[in-house]
Amino acid sequence: MNDLEQSFSRINTIDFLTDKLIEAVDSDNRQDVVDISHALLAFIPVYTKDFDEKFKKCWEEVVTPELKGYNQLDKDITWQRIDPRELTHEPTIKQSKT
User: What pLDDT, in 10s, does the model give residues 5-22?
Assistant: First the structure.
């Protein structure tokens, strides 16, 4: 989880470069606009790839184990299709007795 937090914190670099780009545009500094644009174009794919890798690892460590329990619960429930027009009260879920 810490790796994900560290990766996400690098978004500050994008924020910084964006602010600098706005300053360059406002001051009509075309060379800085080009340089900063190139920096953003180079940095963003690296940032997103790193974040995606860290997010996937975190998901597999934290969420996936929890989902296994829910998947088993889903297998334990007998589902049936009900016509909503036939409902006269709140539906209830019945678990199978297997």
Answer: 888 888 888 999 999 999
Total residues belonging to the chain: 98
Tokens 């994900």, residue located: 4
pTM higher than the cut 0.70: no
Asked whether the predicted pLDDT for residue 41 surpasses 90, the reply is yes
How many whole angstroms separate alpha carbon 14 and alpha carbon 78?
50
| Contacting residues for 82 by C-beta, under 8 A, at least 6 apart | 91
Q: What is the rounded distance in angstroms from the CA atom of residue 76 to the CA atom of residue 86?
A: 25
Cα–Cα dist 70/8, whole Å: 29
Joined tokens for residue 6:
């560290």
